[in-house]
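Problem statement: downstream parser choked on a complex file, so we are re-checking the raw output for the PPE run. The parser issue turned out to be on our end (a line-ending mismatch), but while we're here, posting the original submission so the record is complete.
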Amino acid sequence: MPLQKVDKIWMDGQLVAWDDAKVHILTHTMHYGSGVFEGIRAYATAQGPAVFRLTDHINRLFNSAKVYLIDIPYTPDELVDAVKETVRVNGLDSCYIRPLVYLGYGEMGLNPLPCPVNVSIAVWPWGSYLGDEGVKHGVRLKISTWQRHDPNAVPVAAKGVGMYVNSSMAKVEALKAGYDEAILLSPQGYVSECTGENLFIVKHGRLLTPPVSAGALEGITQHSVMTIARDLGYEVAECNLLRTDLYLAEEAFLTGTAAEVVPIRSVDDRVIGEPGPLTKAIQQTYFATVRGEVDQYKDWLDYVAG
Ligand code: PPE
């Protein structure tokens, strides 16, 4: 999907024209992957565009920065306002939002500490990340030959820019083999997550998802889905899963801000099938929630009009 241009990008407090949102070639993050980022969505609601769980995403951005010893030169409230302003000025009903904290131009070399810390916020219209067909009928997944990072190699709990090379390797491998998405296992051999999504299965009627200790990001959609599932009366647990748990799952789906909630049709050609009742119930509630149609979860929406 080629990027769809909008009007402005927020860069260090200024709204810059899309085509002028540029950085120097010696930007530190470009060479060493030293930055942190977020992925957020705004949805059209009856009261205009609303950003889903904005404060939670901004808090995770600050936590990621803390892990990397990056001092963000704004407060969380300032970035919450900046995100809303960027959505507002671009006049979009719904969009994807990409805040990026990067180390800029100033010094080269592996010590990032002397570099200036820059912040940008870009927004663009982004449809179903894994395709409309995938949302309806499920995606075909393959377990990658690439492992998820060891948590003592890079901090998997932080959304660091450079870390995503691992996800890209796995994604390309899966696509070239004819699958839609990859699943990564932890160095211990447990199921971790997909390249940009958390993963859930239904086993003996319970909803299970791998823990952070298996190398998964603490997903905000994962958290929303766990809350929704419990409120719908399902039993939910975080626990280590084996690849055979995936092969034999009664139902399975993945979750992420970009992907939203997408059923899993098969894993390594072991068929799980069309989306089951639990997956459908979660999908339906999630899509209604982000559009502000579920009173119980109204606090998760941050209206752009303020
Ligand atoms: N795991 C990974 C590795 C990951 O990147 C994401 C988000 C998730 C789990 C789900 O987290 P959450 O969005 O909080 O539910 N991936 C972002 C980037 C996707 C991209 O392709 O870029 C996203 O979904 O915005």
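For whoever reads this later: Residues 203 and 245 are 8 Å apart (CA to CA).
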